[in-house]
Amino acid sequence: MAALCESFTLCGLGPSGGVGLGGGLLALEPGPDPDHVLLTDRGRTATLFKVSDQKPLGCWSVKHGQIITCPVVCNFETHEYIAVQDDKVLRIWKNKDINLDKVFKATLSADVYRIHSLSNGGPVVLFKGGGIRTLDVLLEAPQQEIENIISDEVIKWSEAFTEGQQPVLIFATEKDGDFFVYVQKLKMDSLHKYKLEQQELSKPLSFTAYIKNQMITLLCLYSNDAVYKVLIPLQQNTEDEEQILSKSLLLNLSVSGSVLKGTSFVVLDKDHIAVLGSLAASGEESKECLTIWNTKFQTLQISKELPLGTSGQLWCYEEKFFFTHGKVLTVIMYKCETSSLAAAVGKLKDSQTPDVSSFVNWNTLGDEELVVSFQSQQSVALKSESKMTLRSKRNAVAKVQPDTVSVGQLLLNLKDAPTTVFEDELRQLMSKAQMPDFQATIGCVITALINRCKTNPKYYPRSFLLQIVQTRDLSYSLCPDLMAVALEKKDVHLLQICLQRFPDIPEEITYACLKVFLSISEAYLQRVDVNLESVICYIDIEFNNKEVKTEIVENGFNAEREQDIWDTKITKETHLTADGEFCPVGPQKAALLNAVLHSAYSETFLLPHLKNLPAQQAVLFLRYLYYLYVKCSEKINTTLPGIRSPTINQIMDWMCLLLDAHFTVMVMLPEAKQLLSNLHKFVRAQVRFYSELNKIEGSLRELQRLNHQKDPHTYSIEVLELI
């Protein structure tokens, strides 16, 4: 029995998709973690995604004019990424690398067809001429000669396996309508060539294979809407003459008069395959769909229509399908169970709902779906302590049973309960100890609260949500609607806590929080509760909410000396305000902005959003960053006091990012001119100061060396001149 479960969008594929996939998707490969995938576009870019969060973790591109010519793969032994640029140039890098021009580069002597990465045997490189090398051997001498095995044949497909600690590579070629299969065992350096038995009026469109018990099972999808099976034993005697492989019919892709024109397929288990293609009955328009077939009983198990169209490519990793649907990359989870005749014909009673506990998209689950989801997640049902009678809109009584009740069913029963009952039951639910899938339960509780907020705009359990976020280890992906509702309600305290505690907030939400924080008035913020622990140690506040002026001694910077040197005519009052002595925002707004500075982000994905920040807000934010920069420079260790205070690196990164996004606008704004001028002077003074320190660095080291040579018990006075 097979079933399709939850589906969601991983990323966009158009020019606005934000991950560099505007040229279309070339391939999808597994990443260094089971929850990671590597996407390679038909152009210059490779992107690493975390599937469960639908969040990009890294993006790398080659220069304009260059092109990535085969799928980027991960070396599972070293956690490095390997790409082939312009057929012959190898690029190898790690997560921390940003610029591919500065990573390892090796030019090879022959064109590469594909790189296959094995979890045990390392990467294997297949060249277009049929030559094969492991990556380690290839890197020892990148210009080594690569033999040409297949002459005029063209490689159509390849795959690699590990059998008994031995890498095995299989690839199929085509020449003048004939198809050939090559099997190479790398350690034994044995290569076998086979010819595929011809099929009248049809040819293979797609291949896949798996290996078991020293036997390769090659499956071929033919243009006559059938899947054939070919068995190739690994243990073969060396023979010079070419062997012909016979094939047997595995599956006809037709059901009830409809025929599936398949474009690609994958093996799910020994009894199931998935096929992507167009299903059409005679006289009807064809519809693209994803199907799962039972090869044991020759039946179609399930079909999902894809009205927006696909590229014809299908990938499958970790019980998830990946395929393009319209202008997005879609992920669908599936489940396959042991085949039985009853299940194959759809007569088996569904005694157990599909288990989707590995990933639950709380944003798309409705009330009824919550029940199904948590029936699969909770292996131990909860015993309710409440016997209170709940009245629905229809005045029907739904009593919470004292015996076993699933979490999803309990939440559904509470859907129409009064607010006090609703929140009390949720608190009791969270207080249950030793509960399986506890994090998933908390996520569902938050979803239930948010759903009630949406249906009843007057309802907003601010204190309850704050309590959950502050006391539980949550993430954005577990409750994605939470911050959206907090933004709508302008609940800045909840947003502040989420920014501090959630490790996976999308850049779009981070930008939305920044915009809200900058737009809210200081008068409003003085009336709300905000955690000031990140600012209270370096912003002194009087009762009239104005900062107390304190004398500033900046590292290597004397404002009066700088003014004399550059002959600037700035009044003392302007200098005091613009140079950062007074904080341009109140303490509440400063604390909120500090939470944004602490949030994780990728510059590639944040910069497009930051360009939409209104000019006045951008100038205000830059003034605050400049103020922090000056404050950090007062300290010898360039560290601000307090809890969760921004670091000098965070301040500098955000300042550079903001200037990149708005430099042209700021240059033209009169109110930003003085700020940019003062920022320029301050940075220049810092550079001059550190240059002077560098000049005496050698003398200081020599002094330290001399001190080590002295007898510590001997008293002496010496005069050293630093020239």
Instruction: Specify the structural class.
Output: alpha+beta
Number of distinct helices: 19
Determine the strand fraction and express it as a percent band. 25-35%
The helix content is 25-40%
Radius of gyration: 32 Å
From the N-terminal CA to the C-terminal CA, the straight-line distance is: 85 Å
Q: What does this protein look like?
A:
This protein has 723 residues and is an alpha+beta fold. The protein is built from 19 helices and 31 strands. A hairpin with a 2-residue loop joins strand 14 and strand 15. Helix 7 runs parallel beside helix 9 and helix 9 runs parallel beside helix 14. The protein is globular. About 14% of the residues have low confidence.
Short summary:
With 723 residues, the protein is of the alpha+beta class.
Note the topology:
Blueprint: E1 2-12, E2 25-30, E3 36-41, E4 45-50, E5 55-61, E6 68-75, E7 80-85, E8 89-93, E9 104-107, E10 112-118, E11 122-127, E12 132-134, H1 135-140, E13 154-163, E14 166-175, E15 178-185, E16 190-196, E17 204-212, E18 215-222, E19 226-233, E20 243-245, E21 248-252, E22 254-255, E23 258-269, E24 272-281, E25 287-294, E26 299-305, E27 315-317, E28 320-325, E29 328-336, H2 341-344, H3 367-377, E30 382-383, E31 404-405, H4 407-413, H5 419-430, H6 438-455, H7 462-471, H8 480-489, H9 492-501, H10 507-519, H11 522-525, H12 559-566, H13 572-578, H14 587-598, H15 603-610, H16 615-634, H17 648-668, H18 670-695, H19 697-709
Parallel strand pairs: 16-20
Antiparallel strand pairs: 1-29, 2-3, 3-4, 4-5, 6-7, 7-8, 8-9, 10-11, 11-12, 13-14, 14-15, 15-16, 17-18, 18-19, 19-21, 22-23, 23-24, 24-25, 25-26, 27-28, 28-29, 30-31
